[in-house]
Amino acid sequence: MKKSTKMMFFTMMIIGTMITMSSNSWMSMWMGLEVNMMSFIPLIYKMKNNKSAESSMIYFLTQSMSSMLMLFSISMNSMMENKMMILLTISLMIKMGAAPFQMWFTEMMNKMSWMNCLILMTWQKMAPMFICQMSQEKFLMSSALSTMVGAIGGLNQTSTRKIMAFSSINHMGWMMMCTTFNNNLWIMYLLIYSTLMMPLAWMFNEKMIMHSSQMMTNMKSMTEKMNITCMMMSMGGMPPMLGFLPKWMAINSMMESNMYMIMIMMIMMSIITLFYYMRITMSTMMIYEVQKKWMMINQNKNMYTSIMLTMNLLLMTMMMFF
Fold first, then answer.
1. What is the pTM assigned to this prediction?
2. Terminus-to-terminus CA distance in the chain, angstroms?
3. Which residues contact 220 (CB under 8 A, 6 or more apart)?
């Protein structure tokens, strides 16, 4: 795919999300979601192999089904409002890949490149999350189930893309919980999650890490291993890393709303996600070097170090403000 064509589809994908977020009617929101979907499919299929063809077909069929449900729920708005909101909720959960409709999401993640996985985990969540907030529905059951599925599903995985997919489902549960408080807390959560996910996906893409066993061989120096460990701990929400800040804000909002039982359950599920992050990084840290000293390449060390210093400075600044 040419760079100009790729840029055109990428711009259309952003425009589709902006149409949804700036609309004041259900039909225009649906139109924005359709523009976003039809722009993302060519970006998936740019590699032109069997895996990208299969993942683009999975995405098209799943999103088309959820769009039909959404359109049907919009058309029956004036007749029966309760059933309309149930159908709208189901369609949005399918679009986001939230539990119990997460099967297509994990399969797609395992067949795509890291850059497409990054878009699917971050930007593609924005428009459905906005509609979730606008619908004024309580997604308590789905958010609790998403945190549980995201935590337990990643325990027996060796593929790093599937591990990140289940981690995204877990974070999605926290974001859906943030939408129930009728404020912009979920936007802050999504921004911080995207900030943490970008350098991690970039590093996985550069080092061509598709399985957890490759982290021991593809990470050549101790600096790279320390960087990936800090990023993983931050993704798991270990304090005082940056990833703990959005969960702290969500926990504070849940305590103010007296939602103690669901809060305890979600914290326990987050500890499980932190466990399988630590399981990957500890095995990587045990081996100090896998290459001869005179064969080591130092070209990317300064870049990784600057990324981590920037993230730590951002963490300290945000902690001082809060």
1. 0.85
2. 45
3. 289, 290, 291, 296, 297
pLDDT tens digits along 204-255: 888 888 887 777 777 767 777 888 888 888 888 888 888 888 899 889 988 9
Q: Rg of the chain over CA atoms, in angstroms?
A: 20
DSSP SS3 for 159: strand
CA gap 2, 106 in Å, rounded: 28
Q: What are the residues whose beta carbons fall under 8 Å from the beta carbon of 130, sequence distance 6 or more?
A: 20, 21
Q: Count other Cβ atoms within 10 Å, centred on residue 140.
A: 13
Count the neighbouring beta carbons within 10 Å of the beta carbon of residue 123. Answer: 17
Cβ atoms within 10 Å, residue 75: 12
Amino acid letter, residue 59: Y
**Separation CA 74–CA 50 (nearest Å):** 36
Q: Where are the beta strands (DSSP E) in the chain?
A: none
